[in-house]
Amino acid sequence: MKRDTAANFHETIEQIPTSVRNMSEFCQLRVMIQHTIELRIRYGETDRMGYAYYGNYATYFEVARVETLRSVGITYKQLEDEGVLLPVVNFNVHYHAPAHYDDLIQIETIIDELPRVRFPFKYRTFCNGKLLNEASTELVFVDESTGKPMRCPTHILELLRSHF
Q: On the chain, which terminus has fewer CB atoms closer than 10 Å, C or N?
């Protein structure tokens, strides 16, 4: 005797964890752009304790963000030449452990949603497999001629969408 298709569907749905039953949540968990860079901590970037000075991470994350965008075919120069600016409007870091002089760190940059006017980035910094910090930045697309926020340019959105 053939089982009812609706019953099979509901049985299958029940096997999916509650946290991902909503399809949009499921898609957001599976789809993202991820890129990793490596940087070596230089002596001049350390503080008296020998730790990488916390303020340097803003620069490290900028390098990681620029290279992530470059990896998908977008450069800041291209955006600026088109009259599009991307200032940072929010920057958060949670430190777990310090990096030290001469450490080779890996910064993983994640874009897990397509931008609209705001463009969020997430970062995780590692050294020898150990999580050092987690961070996020939020940038806003700004029209250089008006100084006002704008939607993400269509061609940039399409480039990003092709990697999701």
A: N
Copy the structure tokens of residue 108: 């993983």
- Residue ranges making up the domain that contains 87: 32-161
Query: What digits encode the pLDDT tens for the residues 44-85?
Result: 999 999 999 999 999 999 999 999 999 999 999 999 999 999
Integer Cα distance of 132 and 111 in angstroms: 19
Q: At residue 86, what is the residue type? A: L
pLDDT in tens, 81-91: 999 999 999 99
Task: Please work out, in degrees rounded to the nearest 5, the angle formed at the alpha carbon of residue 21 by the alpha carbons of 15 and 27.
Answer: 120
Backbone dihedral region for residue 69 (phi beyond 0: left; psi -120 to 50: alpha; all else: beta)? alpha
Q: Residues 10, 85: one domain?
A: no
Indicate the pTM of the whole model.
Answer: 0.80
End-to-end alpha carbon distance in the chain: 42
